[in-house]
Amino acid sequence: MAKVALITGAARRIGAEIARTLHQHGFRILLHCRRSTLEANELAAELNQQREDSARVLVANLNSPPAVRELAAAAQAAWGYVDVLVNNASSFYSTPLANATDDDWDALLHSNLRAPFLLIQALADTLRERHGAVVNMIDVYAEKPLQEHSLYCIAKAGLAMLTRSLARELGPDVRINGISPGAILWPEAGQGNQQDILDATALGRCGTPADIAGAVAWLALDAPYVTGQILAVDGGRSLSFHGG
Description:
This protein has 244 residues and is of the alpha/beta class.
């Protein structure tokens, strides 16, 4: 019986690479998206062409707690169980202190922290039954803050603690780990300090989505004695990290 993975934010970029990688490992894939339905459906078609009925698309707004709970229910109903949850979806933008609003709190805290909590909560029973795993996508900025991104950093720091605390609460049946990517893909809106970031990276280059996807696969499948850990996949940037 094939394992099932739910991946949030799976239509594009790193999420899509994670989906392809787990699919290559024999998983059935539940591709969550919010707005990128065209890309999600194209990816599902690609995966289903490789293996019939091995990918489905689920649409949900992670800023809405009821929608997150409905997403969890739909995920479990798709094939009857979930083995792996990858909390990859994330909102990212600057929130200078003077300009931060209640809406910014909702947008950044819901998608980056509350939605992962609610999904784990709703899927805990099936994950226990399947001795499953959760992988949370965190960030190097959970530990070293990025200037004028306090709400994002707060949310990711919370996700790091969620990873550790729920690893204790759901063990021994469910393993929960995190990944902190470094420079993998630049934000689509651009990032002005790219060279500074690369200069602060021991390997002196960007990583690739495949680096993250490989780490997800390892934590999900090949690390039975690893839980409550946050793996930095950052080319050594955290060794000499400076904000920015």
